[in-house]
């Protein structure tokens, strides 16, 4: 009996030691990532991109919903189906967006995310919208174990800087524990139109400087937990009357007006080294020559965000299945126009197959240079390296697909 007890204790101690080593290795990987400078990480991203096939590079340009991976699955999509596996093999996307309907409880969500990662050639961005208030895909379900925070408007009015820092930390730690590595937050819009129906109480306030301080605070506290923050909705939707979810929306703001107010929180987030900026479908009638959504505008994406604001990390679109896009553009057309504008990742195209194949054909025909695709893929890989999703000491990924 004693001998059996000693054996059990020995086995238990070995298990505990292994567990400690695993945790230690994860912490060591994160520490190594933090120790590497930007130039080194960008060099690594460039090397990895060189090793990738065109198929995999094009895949990295897309972030899709769970539904688009298995459109025949009519029930709650809370598990990885065979069809999802087949779709990911054919179209190896760079990220997946999860909604409340995909999350039954914490255990199921964690397993589903792990299953997605296991079948992906390169680690996926697993993103969600966890702002607080009414846009809280995860914390709206008490089974998820994520604190539900009030609206941004209430937070802006009542929370101290210390409380905001703690919120960013707590929320991000809890999301990370579930397997998420990207949050479509914080909202950097400045609410100047009280009748705004698109963002409303999702904004932290109407004073640009105050909002800018909150944005900087949240970006830093979120990304310290290795969750990529995403500023939205550039160039700023707080002054609009319409809603891009429902159709065309424009604003008569001038570039001077935007620089004076709406750009401030975005510049603050960029100074805080935010991983990604989401561009809105808002049309800037007095800024661009063409009457097109900002997501499809070279003037907005490249001339202003990339060059004027000197932002060199990920630029992603708002959901491309919104009516502001689908009412006037096919999925393929919108995707190509966004890439031509300078966007790096297409979020939720209306039709993944048509969008993916449009890019493939454009590259093969010479309409889009592969070097242009490489630029965006390098930014995607850079962020994944930076957040420890791809270990910094890994050997170059062997592309055998």
Structure, described:
The chain has 401 residues and is α/β, with parallel strands linked by helices. It has one domain: Alpha-Beta Barrel (TIM Barrel). Helix content is 48%, strand content 10%. The protein contains 14 helices and twelve strands. The strands form three sheets. Strands 11-9-7-6-3-2-1-12 form an eight-stranded parallel β-sheet. Strands 4-5 form a two-stranded antiparallel sheet. α7 (161-178) packs parallel to α8 and α12 (331-341) packs across α13. The longest helix is centred in the N-terminal third of the chain and has 34 residues, at 2-35. The protein is globular and about 45 Å long. The model is unreliable at 1-26 (pLDDT under 50).
Mean pLDDT: 89
What share of residues are in beta strands? Answer: 5-15%
The helix count comes to: 14
General form: globular
CATH architecture: Alpha-Beta Barrel
Give Rg in angstroms: 21 Å
Query: Percent of residues in helical segments?
Result: 40-55%
Question: Which fold name corresponds to the CATH topology?
Answer: TIM Barrel
- Order of strands, main sheet, comes to 11-9-7-6-3-2-1-12
**Helix/strand/pairing category:** alpha/beta
Q: Supply the CATH superfamily name.
A: Glycoside hydrolase, family 3, N-terminal domain
Helix and strand pattern: HHHEHEHEEEHHEHEEHEEHEHHEHH
The total number of structural domains is 1
Count of beta strands: 12
The major beta sheet can be summarized as:
8 strands, parallel
């Amino acid at each position: 009996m004693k001998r059996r007890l000693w054996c059990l204790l020995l086995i238990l101690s070995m298990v505990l030691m292994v567990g400690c080593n695993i945790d230690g290795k994860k912490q060591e990987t994160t520490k190594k990532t933090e120790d590497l400078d930007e130039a080194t990480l960008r060099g690594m991203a460039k090397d990895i991109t060189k090793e990738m096939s065109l198929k995999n590079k094009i895949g990295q340009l897309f972030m899709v919903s769970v539904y688009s991976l298995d459109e025949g699955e009519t029930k709650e999509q809370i598990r990885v189906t065979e069809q999802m596996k087949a779709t990911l093999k054919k179209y190896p996307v760079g990220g997946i967006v999860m909604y409340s309907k995909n999350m039954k409880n914490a255990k199921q969500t964690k397993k589903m995310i792990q299953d997605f990662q296991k079948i992906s050639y390169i680690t996926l961005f697993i993103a969600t919208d966890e702002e607080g208030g009414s846009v809280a895909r995860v914390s709206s379900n008490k089974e998820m174990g994520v604190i539900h925070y009030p609206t941004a408007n209430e937070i802006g009015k009542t929370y101290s800087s210390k409380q905001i820092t703690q919120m960013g930390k707590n929320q991000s730690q809890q999301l990370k524990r579930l397997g998420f590595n990207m949050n479509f937050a914080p909202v950097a819009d400045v609410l100047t139109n009280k009748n705004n129906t698109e963002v409303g109480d999702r904004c932290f306030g109407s004073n640009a400087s105050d909002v800018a301080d909150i944005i900087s605070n949240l970006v830093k506290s979120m990304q310290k937990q290795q969750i990529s923050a995403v500023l939205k909705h550039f160039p700023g939707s707080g002054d609009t009357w319409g809603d891009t979810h429902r159709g065309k929306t424009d604003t008569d703001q001038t570039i001077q007006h935007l620089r004076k107010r709406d750009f401030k929180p975005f510049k603050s987030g960029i100074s805080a080294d935010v991983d990604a900026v989401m561009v809105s479908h808002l049309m800037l009638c007095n800024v661009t020559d063409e009457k097109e959504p900002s997501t499809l505008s070279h003037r907005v994406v490249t001339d202003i965000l990339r060059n004027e604001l000197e932002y060199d990390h990920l630029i992603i679109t708002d959901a491309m299945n919104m009516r502001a896009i689908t009412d006037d553009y096919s999925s393929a057309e919108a995707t190509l126009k966004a890439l031509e504008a300078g966007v790096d990742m297409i979020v939720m195209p209306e039709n993944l197959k048509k969008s993916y194949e449009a890019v493939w054909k454009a590259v093969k025909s010479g309409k889009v240079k592969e070097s242009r695709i490489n630029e965006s893929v390098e930014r995607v890989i850079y962020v994944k390296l930076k957040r420890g999703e791809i270990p910094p000491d890994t050997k170059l990924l062997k592309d055998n697909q």
